[in-house]
Structures are given as C-alpha cells and as structure tokens.
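Why should sequence recovery work at all? Because a backbone constrains its sequence more than one might expect. Tight turns favour small or flexible residues, buried strands favour hydrophobic ones, and helices have their own preferences. The token representation captures these environments compactly. In the example below, the structure is given first.
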C-alpha cells in the first residue's frame, strides 16, 4: 500500500531517488543504515514508501475454495516439517546481534525458499509456558506485542491446526507499511529428530504458512504479505543460578521467510527483518516478567 502524500510534499524523480537510495544502501553496517535512514529527505522517504509498498497482488483473481480437513492437515504438516528442517540447519551468517548476550539474527539461503532469517535468544521461563501462550492465546498477542496489530482465528481445523488472519506492524521508520497475512498454523511437541510426540518433547513448535481462504480477500488499503515458511521453536533449558537454584529457561528461535511484496531492496529487508526480530524478543521478555509478577509462571 502506497502512503498518500499531500500535494505540497516535495517531489523527486525516479533517477535521483534511485541514486540516493544506492548511496543509502551502500553502507557497512545495519547501524549505519539506520542512522542514515533517520536523516533522509522527506522527498526520498515518500518515494521509498510509494515503491516499497506497491501491492503486486491481482485482487480480481481472488477466488479460493475451502479445502478438506485432511488437505489442510497435510499442508500444515508439510510446512511444519520444512520449518523444523530449516531452523535446525547449520552454517548461518550473522546479520545483527542484540543488546542482550546471546541474542542474534542470522540468515542463509535455502533452496526453494530463498533467503531465510533466524533469531536465537534465551527467555527466562519454561518453554512449555511460552508454547501454550502462543498456541492457546494467539488472538491476545496484540495486547502485549505491538509488532502485531491484529490477530483473529478464522477456523479451527483440528488438534494443533488452525487458520488465522494477522496484521503486522510496519518497519524501517515508517518506510515499510503494515502487512496482513492469512496463515495456516501447526503447533506440536517434537522429538530431537523432529517427529511429533505426545510428551517429553525435545522442543515445541508453532509453524505457519500463507494460504488463501474464502472471505479474506486482499484489501485495497493493505498489502497482503506471503509467508513462505516460518515458525517459533522453543527448547527447554535448565540453568543453575549463582545461589545454586535450578531454573527453567527457553531457548527461543524464530524462523522467518516472508515476501512483503513491493520493490524492496534486499539490504532494506535485511535491516527490517533483523530489527523486528530483535524488537519482538523485548516484548516477549516483558510479557514473561509481568506474568511472573502475577505468579502465573
């Protein structure tokens, strides 16, 4: 979605805009890019918004049908298997480190999906607590996490499988506007090898992939994003405090591979994805701290 600008807003031609954009992109670090982004002219900012948020979806061709329960389950299981396989791959490249020790956003290319991003960090709560919060209270996420503006369950398909509609906040200091998604989700307990188990899991997963469903067409005022593959993956950890107490922690990983539509340069996407992932974990930790204060953990 291209933001409307006032008639008095400064104009810039495409050649000049692309030259200035190249100067903006050719920097050595994420921090330098973010500093330059805060100083760009309003004319370049308006041009970037119009190009980066150009909806390429052909809304007139929207004509999905409901699939069978078995078809949705099969698609959800395939997406979950892809997400677990990718998030456990070796040889990732660091994109950006967070301010908390151990927080890191990495990336790598994966055949069939392109560039994927992975966040890794530790949260001081049992992995099961976060998993059940994500699984059972998905619609409450916008109440404590401002990176998600809206979330509603469209349909319960079966145990651990559902369809949801989500709207994510924009990024890049307003250059990238909010996106909406229709997601087929799969939640499960997994063994070390990635098999679904009933108890004693090695990890907990909540995966998602974009789908089309009747009644949720792309909106004129919103750019419909496409989630190729993604998940939250939580692994239980125990640590001993200096006082000798044993505490439960969660190794929290987030896999993301999204097509945000629009002509967004890769470096802009790198910064946007790294920033939203590092922002997200701040809200997760704040939510956990408040839950502990209420004695819910």
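From this structural description, the recovered sequence reads:
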């Amino acid at each position: 979605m291209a933001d409307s600008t006032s008639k008095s807003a400064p104009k810039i031609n495409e050649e000049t805009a692309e030259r200035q954009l190249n100067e903006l992109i050719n920097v050595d670090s994420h921090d330098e890019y973010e500093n330059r982004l805060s100083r760009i002219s309003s004319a370049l900012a308006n041009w970037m918004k119009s190009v980066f948020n150009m909806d390429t979806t052909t809304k007139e061709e929207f004509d999905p049908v409901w699939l069978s329960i078995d078809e949705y389950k099969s698609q959800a299981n395939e997406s979950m298997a892809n997400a677990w396989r990718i998030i456990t791959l070796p040889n990732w490249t660091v994109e950006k480190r967070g301010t908390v020790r151990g927080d890191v956003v990495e990336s790598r290319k994966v055949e069939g999906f392109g560039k994927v991003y992975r966040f890794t960090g530790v949260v001081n709560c049992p992995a099961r607590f976060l998993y059940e919060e994500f699984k059972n209270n998905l619609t409450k996420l916008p109440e404590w996490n401002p990176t998600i503006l809206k979330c509603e369950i469209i349909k319960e398909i079966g145990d651990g499988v559902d369809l949801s509609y989500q709207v994510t906040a924009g990024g890049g200091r307003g250059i990238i506007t909010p996106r909406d998604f229709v997601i087929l989700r799969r939640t499960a307990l997994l063994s070390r090898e990635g098999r679904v188990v009933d108890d004693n899991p090695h990890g907990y997963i909540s995966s998602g992939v974009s789908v089309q469903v009747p009644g949720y067409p792309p909106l004129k005022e919103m750019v419909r994003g496409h989630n190729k593959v993604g998940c939250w993956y939580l692994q239980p950890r125990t640590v001993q405090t200096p006082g000798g107490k044993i505490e439960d922690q969660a190794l929290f990983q987030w896999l993301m591979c999204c097509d945000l539509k629009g002509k967004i340069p890769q470096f802009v996407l790198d910064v946007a994805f790294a920033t939203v992932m590092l922002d997200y974990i701040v809200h997760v930790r704040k939510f956990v701290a408040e839950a502990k204060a209420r004695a819910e953990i």
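A few observations help interpret the result. The chain has a mean pLDDT of 90.
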